[in-house]
Amino acid sequence: MSRWVGDNDKSSISAVDQLSECFEDLLKKGEDLSDITFVVDNKEFYLHRCVLASRSSYFRALLFGGMRESQEDKVELRDTTDAAFSKLIFFIYTGRIELQLLDKDLVLDILRLAHRYGLEQLVSLLSKFLNSTLRLRDVCKIFNHAIMFQLDDLVQSTSDFMDRHATEILESEELLHLSDDALIKLISRNSFCASELVIFRAVSAWCEYHSVTGSDAEPILECVRLPLIGMKELLHEVRPMGIASPDSIMDAISLKVESRDMELPHRGVIFPDRNMAVGTEGAEVIDGEFIQFLLDGNSTDYNNDKGFSRHIIGNSESGEPKAIVISLAQPTILNHLKLLLWDKDDRAYSYYIEVSVDGKDYLKVIDYANYFCRSWQNLYFPQRVVRFIRIVGTANTANNVFHLVALEAYFRENVPEFDQKGIIKPAKNVACVREGATVIEGVSRTRDTLISGQLGEYDWEQGYTCHQLGVGAIVVQLAQPYLLGSMRLLLWDCDDRQYTFDIYVSTDRKTWQLVVKKEQLCRSWQYMEFPARPVVFFQVVGTHNTANEVFHAVHFESPAQVGPEETEARWRPSPSQFENPNQEVEENTNSEETEDETLSNPEPT
């Protein structure tokens, strides 16, 4: 079929389908026009040197590379089947191949030939087809081929499939047909999650099937995590089988006795970018008050009476800290948690988070006990196998209760840089409303104007935040601590005035560190760097204004989203014809009473 293909400026004709049909017809003509014959399984294929060479580097070297076959009219190919070769040749000539009704063994034979003959396009297409049609009965064979031909995408997809069906794979006879490399790669995965005793039994059956014993079995047995097997099973089942050495069994027992449970090499399921802390995934809250709200998926409908879980801050009678505890349905590999702290007023919370596999031995992964936090918390830690999540509130600036509105638990492929306490070093601006930051000191017509990101919307009357020189400051609170070392500040620049100012940082709003001291008069955009450190609060203190006794700032961000050169290029020219903005702070803002009304909200119980 021919068709027109075009756009506004040019047109062309396409007859690709007819071309494919012509080459199919050429293939069907048999000996007519053929100049080379291939013999596969005693079946002759009448082909054309130029077609094969143009489509495959293997055939180009074979037929035109000075090899013996380049001088012959008939070439015999061994180690293949006529069925697979026939499908391969049809693809070479027509660019088409029908796979849906083919047996998987035949598809794998075609894949093997495509790889051998350097048909990368066909290898890619076959890999995608196999990936889309994975089944328990053939996934092990596909996994073998994916590893053999180093098809990384197919290796990953088959591995993920077997992770999700680990127990069925271990109980299937198909496991016996894995190569030793494939078996090692499979059971070495932290996400291949099943009973370790079941894994040991399957490995033992594989070794027996392949007559692998002694030192030959050691590389495979090293991938079995014997410390995860119960002591009774180690002594009464594993040891009598004789496949695991006495030393390896003693080492496993020693590790079980001397190590914390969280130090053992646990396995867990993995579901990238899927929230595992929801009721539909089998998660539940097992400790805390008002537990029905935390995992209900509703992070918008909450107030001072409902929509949150809580615990009293302090220790229980047993001496254990009171906490909110979530139990997941099964051991799960996680590296990311999202928490929503109750945020209907200016209060801040401190807390830490521990995780556990057995519900007894907990490991701290996030420690924000010495930081003030608010609203949404984005938390990252090195990936771990987790069954239980314990959130321990340590402080509330309003009362003695820790309130948690929502919790989500994920595994993320891409994670930001963070330190041992889980404090993120962000690349994007975190001093903004969309990241949960807020302005807690300073005067403006609209709260959070300074960090709203509306850079073009300021004039003499609106769009800036200010404070009286010598009285107070402008204070920005971030949602959580971040490792920061740069920032940008846009000073009000609608006339020629200039400012000087200082900037301090803090994690608790009590102890402040001076990081910037601008003693030379400056105006418009300011780029500033300081040694990176954990920051929760920024305090901007104006020290001088050449026009009046008020310090005005339009925009603040951290970390700085552009460098000093681009910041300088964005300076606004000095419009000397402009009049000064209103002299008094009160004329640029609502009254104190109105401001208090705006910032106050009911307190949760």
TrEMBL record:
- List the InterPro entries hit by this protein, alphabetically: BACK (IPR011705), BTB/POZ_dom (IPR000210), BTB_POZ_domain_cont_9 (IPR052407), BTBD9_BACK-like_dom (IPR034091), FA58C (IPR000421), Galactose-bd-like_sf (IPR008979), SKP1/BTB/POZ_sf (IPR011333)
Extent of the signal sequence: none
Gene Ontology annotations of biological process type:
adult locomotory behavior; circadian behavior; modulation of chemical synaptic transmission
A GO term from the CC aspect: cytoplasm
* Stretches for region Disordered: 561-605
Q: Which Gene3D superfamilies match?
A: 1.25.40.420, Galactose-binding domain-like (2.60.120.260), Potassium Channel Kv1.1, Chain A (3.30.710.10)
Question: Could you tell me which residue ranges the BTB domain spans?
Answer: 34-101
Ranges of biased composition (kind: Acidic residues): 584-598
Top-level taxon in the UniProt lineage: Eukaryota
UniProt xrefs under PANTHER family = BTB/POZ DOMAIN-CONTAINING PROTEIN 9 (PTHR46306), BTB_POZ DOMAIN-CONTAINING PROTEIN 9 (PTHR46306:SF1)
Name this polypeptide is given: BTB/POZ domain-containing protein 9
Which organism was this protein described from? Oikopleura dioica
